[in-house]
Amino acid sequence: MNILVCISKAPDTTSKITFTDGNTKFNEDGVQFIVNPYDEWYALVRGLELKETLGGKLTIISVGGADYEPILRKALAIGADEAVRIDANPTDSNQVAAELANYAKANNFDLVLLGKETINYNGSQVGGMMAAMMDVAYVSNASKLDVAGTTASIEREKQGGTEVLEAQLPCVISAAKGMAEQRIPNMRGIMAARSKPLNVIAASGAAALTETVSYTLPDAKGAVKLIDPENVAELVNLLHNEAKVI
Amino acid sequence: MNVLVFADSFNGSAVKAAHEAASYGAKIANGGNTSIVTYGEISESSMNELASYGITNILHANGINDMDPARLAKLVEAAANETGAEVVIFSHDYTGKSVAPMLAARMKAGLVTGVIDYPSTDGSFTVKKAVFSGKALAEVKFNTEKKVISLLPNSVGKTKTEASANVTVFNPDLGTSSVTIKEFKAKGGEGILLTEAELVVSAGRGLKGPENWGMIEELAKELGAGTACSRPVSDIGWRPHHEHVGQTGIAIRPNLYIAVGISGAIQHLAGVNGSKVIVVINTDSDAPFFKAADYGIVGDAFTVVPKLIAAVKEFKAAQA
Ligand SMILES: Cc1cc2nc3c(=O)[nH]c(=O)nc-3n(C[C@H](O)[C@H](O)[C@H](O)COP(=O)(O)OP(=O)(O)OC[C@H]3O[C@@H](n4cnc5c(N)ncnc54)[C@H](O)[C@@H]3O)c2cc1C
Ligand SMILES: Nc1ncnc2c1ncn2[C@@H]1O[C@H](COP(=O)(O)O)[C@@H](O)[C@H]1O
Predict the structure, then answer these.
(1) How far is the CA of B287 from the centre of ligand 1 (A)?
(2) Is the pTM of this model over 0.95?
(3) Domain A2-218 class in CATH
(4) Residues 6+ apart with CB under 8 A from A130
(5) pLDDT in tens, A79-102
C-alpha cells in the first residue's frame, strides 16, 4: 500500500503567543515547535501500523520552508520511509491543500492520512479540500481505521454517537484520538532518519484565498470572584442576577 | 447579498446549531435572500422553526440520507448555484467540518472555519476566529467573490423574525458515493449533547473515582446542562471519551462552564476558554484554573457540589 501522511508543525501549547509587524504576523522567536499532535500520534502511527501489516511504503509530506526539516526528521525517526517538502510559505489552507493534492494526484497514493486539525489555527480544512481537489472520498475525525483490499473500515465520532462506515480507496482520512497510540522515537530510529531521503520540490504556485489581516489578544479576564463555600446559594444568585447565565 | 445556510438534521429535526446559523445567515443577507439547504428526514415543524429565523426559502433534498460529505458538498454547491448565494454558512460541528472544506474547494471559494462573530463588510469582508488554543483572535479577510464560513456554535445567539419560507423539494444528481454508512451507534442516555449544551458541568481527577459522578450528573440535570470531563478521566475510563474537552478533545463555548476538581492545565483550558462564564470548584486555591475563572469556590467538591445542587433546586422552586 502506498500511504501519504501530511505533517504540519505547531507551536507547543505552552508557548507564549505574541505577534510582530503591527500584529499581522505570529512571532516565532523562541517558540518551541512540535509535530502537530494529531498528525504524529494518530495519522502517522496508524499509517505505519498499516504499512507494517500490509506492506508498501509510507511517505510524509509538508508544505513549508526549511524550518520544517527538523519536524520532518522527527517523523522519519518514528518510522516513515521518506519525506517530501514542498517549498513554500503558505498563508492559507487552500494553498496548502492545492499543493498537497497536486502531489498526491501525481503519485498514486492509495491512502492519504492527516490530522483532524492543526492546534494553532484549528482549521479542520486541509483534508476536505484535498479530497475534493483529488475527487476522492473524505472521512473526517476517524477514531479507528482498518484496510482490507481496497476498502477502508472506519469509525468516527459525530454528534450523538459513533458512525461505522466503509470508504473505497483511494481516499483521504483525517485522524482523531483513538486511532493509534503515540510512539516515541528510539535511538535507532533517530540515527536511521538522518540518512532517509528528504526531497525538496518546488511549489506549483497555488493561491491563498484568504488572509489574516490582524491578530489580537483576548481581553484579560478580571480577577476571579471568590465565594464562601458555606454560602453556595450566593453563587446561584450571582449566576442568575449578575452573569445572567441561569 | 444572497446567503445559503446548510442545516444538518438529526433524528428528524434540524440540529440546534442550525438555528443559530440560520439567524446568522439572515443578518448577513441584510435584506437579500437567505435560503436553507437541508436533507434527509426532517419534520415540517422543524422546517418552520428554521424558517422563523428569517429564511425565505428552504431547499429540501428528501432523497438522500447517506451523509457522505462529498455528496453533501455537491448538494450544497447545486443549492448555491440555484439560489445565487455569495456566502454559504455552516455550523462548525462534525458535519460542517467535513462538508464545508469540500464545498469551498469545489466552488473555489475562500473558507474560514470556527468563526465567532458577524463579518465586518465595510470595504472588505472579514471575519473573526479564535486561534492558538484560544490564546489569540485572528481577523481574516476573504479574497474571493464566493465565501464559505463555518460558525462556532453558541457564538452569536439567534433572533426570530416573522418570516415563513417556501419549501421546495430539491434532489439534484449527486453521482454515486464511495462511502457507505454501516451503522450508527447512538451514545444513549437522555443527556444533552455536549456540542449543543449552553451550560456544562465538568469534572476532573479531583473526583477520585467514577463512582462519584452521580452528583455531577445530578447537578447537570438540575441545571439542564451537559456533562464533560478532563482528559485523564476519560483516559482511565472513568468517563466516556466523547466527554473529554481540551486540546485533544473537543472545544466548547457554553454560556456557563462549571469545573469541579480540574486543575486547569493549559491543554484543558484550550477547549473551554471560550466559555462565557467559568466557575471553578477546587480544594487548592493555587489551582491555575482560578486565573481563568469568573467565580470560584475554594472547597471540597464532596461538600460543595451537594450544597450547590440544593441551592439550584431552591432557586428553581423560587422561580416556578
Ligand atoms: C499534549 C497534551 C494534550 C493534552 N490534552 C488535554 C485535553 O485535551 N484535555 C485535558 O483535560 N487535558 C489534556 N492534557 C492533560 C493536562 O495537561 C492535564 O494533565 C489534565 O487536564 C489534568 O486533569 P485534571 O485537572 O482532571 O487532573 P489533576 O491535574 O490531577 O487535577 C485535579 C484537581 O482536583 C483538585 N482536587 C482534588 N481533590 C479535590 C476535591 N475533593 N474537591 C475539589 N477539588 C479537588 C486538585 O486540587 C487538582 O487541582 C493534555 C496533556 C498534554 C501533554
Ligand atoms: N503546511 C502543511 N503541510 C502539510 N500538511 C499540513 C499542513 N497544514 C496542515 N496540514 C495537514 O492538514 C491537517 C489539518 O489542518 P488544518 O486544516 O489546518 O486544521 C493537519 O493535521 C495536517 O495533517
Answers:
(1) 10
(2) no
(3) alpha beta
(4) A6, A97, A100, A101, A104, A112, A114, A138, A172, B105
(5) 999 999 999 999 999 999 999 999
